[in-house]
Amino acid sequence: MSDAITFVGLDTHKQTISVVLAENDRAGEVRYVGKIANRPEAVARLVRRLAKQHAKLRFSYEAGPCGYGLCRQIVALGHDCVIAAPALIPRRPGDRVKTDRRDGAALAKNDRAGELVQVWVPEPADEAMRDLVRARQAAVETMGQQRQRLLSFLLRQGRIYEGKKHWTKAHRHWLAGLAFDAPAHRVVFQEAIEAIGEAEARRDRLTQQVEALLPGWRWHAVVLALQAMRGVALVTAATLVAEIGDFRRFAHPRQLMAYLGLVPSENSSGPRVRRGAITKAGNARVRRVLDEAAWSYRHGPRVGAALAARRAALPKRVRDIAWKAQLRLTARWRHLLAKGKKPPVAVTAIAREMVGFLWAIAIAATPADA
């Protein structure tokens, strides 16, 4: 057997996996092997069979709903495996034929050419914490939907709250005093109130579980350190670490900014330079929590009671970075508004600069044995 690498493209689906082999030479044969069941025992048989025929194997498949289990199994069997970012796989503009066989061949050939961009594969414990954080976010979204349905129902009935803000104690007291003549409306109103209560309870339960499980997580120290930043409390810090993972995989904060889709898009040609809105090419969950945190820098620099409590036990180096961030970002906010930038645009710019400070804090707080 030759020592050359054989590239194996796997087009994965819920029930099946289509397998395509590409020899190491760029002009080498690309051969369709067939389909196997998407089951661990079938994958193990395939890997053992191919390993007898080829000296070195390198597998690849697209990131998707099937998760990381296939990659972990292949790596445990002693072979390389790449999970490719689907949006970054090269595709021919004129190609109008899509089949499982062609998708597998494209993966194998692009991996052979070095054109696949690999996604980060988290450790099982990191993936579990990320799923918990995402479950909480889903509960928050459900709660918002239930609240909006109730407000829409009340608007249709001409019941408009005159206070400044919804879902305060005053607003809930106003809701408790509402009455409807039609029995059907009374049922709709009460069911909506109970649905909101259930959604809020689920959000609170999941928040408590995030707090309870964080101390046993290997990135607990990083989550605590990130909370030195203004606008970054426990849930925001846990979301950042769960979604980004090991900050050390980014050699420079600009790489992390690009990874999160916070850098400007560009369409330049020749002497013309044209930059547009941010690319939004990265993790939308991280951009959302960063935008929410960035609004806090519209106020002057200060350390309130809650922030002081979060900072109390943190190292001086972390506290110094966070204070430097406050001075820089609050001044940046004033400067952007003075230039005539709209607040949402300024918030995006602040969020992008926040990433640099968050990266520095995470690097400083990451345990050496993590």
Number of strands: 7
Decide which structural class fits the backbone: alpha/beta
Strand content: 5-15%
- Counting structural domains, the number is 3
Compute the gyration radius: what is it? 26 Å
Strand arrangement across the biggest beta sheet: 3-2-1-4-5
Q: Quick check: average pLDDT?
A: 95
Could you spell the SSE succession in H and E letters?
A: EEEHEHEHHHHHHHEEHHHH
Shape: globular
Report, as a whole number of angstroms, the end-to-end distance: 39 Å
Major beta sheet summary:
5 strands, mixed
Instruction: Figure out the total of helices.
Output: 13
Helix content: 40-55%
Q: What is the multimeric organization of the chains shown?
A: single chain
Describe the structure.
The structure is a single chain. This protein is α/β, with parallel strands linked by helices and 370 residues long. The protein has three domains: 108 residues, Nucleotidyltransferase, domain 5 (2-Layer Sandwich); 93 residues, Orthogonal Bundle (Helix Hairpins), CATH 1.10.287; 146 residues, no CATH class. Helices cover 53% and strands 11% of the residues. The chain contains 13 helices and seven strands. A five-stranded mixed β-sheet has the order 3-2-1-4-5. It has a two-stranded antiparallel ribbon with strand order 6-7. The model has no long low-confidence stretch (mean pLDDT 95).
